[in-house]
């Protein structure tokens, strides 16, 4: 028999997410916690991001954004709040972005967890 891997609870996923977010390790979050069928949703008509689905597309969305960031002046992520199979964090950034200049984004980030993995991230800003 092969040992079965323990499926993390939403609280455990949120705790690991927080540990990595506090270190600004967003791509490690994707690698460790995102399901292959992850969906990433931004507000309609966002000037920053578009919809992405699937781990590869979501990674490309993040990489494309990071490549445009010229300077990070201030970055902060709150502790997660867990409710059922969801958790939310607040995120504030003050960054300089190619083509946009210096911008501040104050957002709420909602995550849905299923079978120990994040299957949805949705941003409100």
Give a verbal description of the structure.
With 125 residues, the chain is α+β, with helices and mostly antiparallel strands. It is built from three helices and seven strands; from the N terminus they run H-H-E-E-H-E-E-E-E-E. The chain has a single domain, classed as Nuclear Transport Factor 2, Chain: A. Strands 1, 2, 3, 4, 5, 6 and 7 form a seven-stranded mixed β-sheet that branches. Helix 1 runs antiparallel to helix 2.
Per CATH, what is the topology?
Nuclear Transport Factor 2, Chain: A
Rounded to an integer, what's the Rg over CA atoms?
Answer: 15 Å
- CATH class, anyone? Alpha Beta
Largest sheet: 7 strands, mixed
List the helices and strands and how they pair.
Blueprint: H1 10-21, H2 26-33, E1 34-41, E2 52-53, H3 55-68, E3 69-77, E4 81-83, E5 86-97, E6 101-114, E7 117-124
Parallel strand pairs: 1-7
Antiparallel strand pairs: 1-2, 3-5, 4-5, 5-6, 6-7
Helix pairs in contact: 1-2
What does this entry show, briefly?
With 125 residues, the chain is an alpha+beta fold.
Defining traits:
single chain; 125 residues; alpha+beta; Nuclear Transport Factor 2, Chain: A; 27% helix
